[in-house]
Amino acid sequence: MKWVVPIGDMKIAQNPDLLVTDALGSCLCLTVYDPVSGVGGLLRAMLPLSQINLKKADMNPFIFVDTGIPALFEQLVAQETVTLKDNWVVKVAGCGNPMGPREVFKIGNRNYRILRERLASERIRLAAEDIGGTASRTVCLDLASGQTIVRSSGAERVL
Predict the structure, then answer these.
(1) Which pLDDT does position 48 carry in this prediction?
(2) Can you list the domains of the chain with their CATH numbers?
(3) How large is the average pLDDT for residues 6-35?
(4) Of 24, 26, 67, 131, which residue is the least packed, with the fewest Cβ within 10 Å?
């Protein structure tokens, strides 16, 4: 089954499902795949830090990178078949600057910085990344193969 993940959301699925998010610009898309169980998750966070609106973060932690990542990990660990974090294949895409180098808020850069801090605190290493730039991306996590596929500017590549 194909599951579409909108902005500020997360989905967990299993083999042979497909998780997809479209029109990714400054948002962060984090994919996590457990090759032992065939279970994975895709997070699409919009903003770096929840401190700008703690009430909103309490209602939906997936809007923010700093609260979305631990919430995704927590829900993955809650899956009975998911193995240790050491087995996970973690990849990131997005964190771009759709407005170009003149973009004032640098949301994409900030999203990426918070991601790196969160992963370091969890002792999780990124397996691959496709970040930055001004082009929009579509990201798919194919749970049948475990591949994260990025489509952008008419090209497709496996991370």
Answers:
(1) 97
(2) 2-158 (3.30.1330.200)
(3) 96
(4) 131
Q: Is residue 100 scored above 70 in pLDDT? A: no
CA dist 138 to 1, 18, 25, 104, Å?
17, 13, 9, 24
Q: What is the per-residue pLDDT for 119? A: 95
- Residue 157: exposure state from Cβ atoms within 10 A (0-12, 13-18, ≥19): exposed
How far is CA 77 from each of CA 2, 20, 87, 127, rounded to the nearest angstrom?
Answer: 22, 21, 12, 19
